[in-house]
């Protein structure tokens, strides 16, 4: 007969272990609240202030991405949303994939794709140059590029 260790006893491996499911659950709730604030702040500034939706253009986005406050706002939104979504997908994989090798492969693919999107998105936000290509398309150059 196999003995089942008591809850919160460390899983029977002699010592404390990190409960990743608990921390994943806590992350989903905390990131969800932060994402609501970040997303509705983003929507309010883009759609309700100034000229509303008609103000959104390449120049508007370029102007926002030139401001460090909005860079960090967008990066926080990007990181939280991607990790939140990846954690949700991890939960689905754990719940519905029964074969261990397939489950492991899907989790590796999930971590890899999330990491790649985080790196690429962060690079785009912090290295965005609205004047890139101004020589090839002079009729599309923003006024800030000619100065």
TrEMBL record:
Signal peptide: none annotated. This is Succinate dehydrogenase. InterPro entries: SQR/QFR_C/D, SuccDH_FuR_B_TM-su. Gene3D superfamilies: Fumarate reductase/succinate dehydrogenase, transmembrane subunit. The chain crosses the membrane at residues 26-49, 69-87, 108-128. It comes from Arenivirga flava. GO terms for molecular function: metal ion binding. Pfam families: Sdh_cyt (PF01127). It is found in: Membrane. Keywords: Heme, Iron, Membrane, Metal-binding, Transmembrane, Transmembrane helix. One of its GO terms (cellular component) is membrane. It comes from the Bacteria. The lineage of its organism: Bacteria, Bacillati, Actinomycetota, Actinomycetes, Micrococcales.
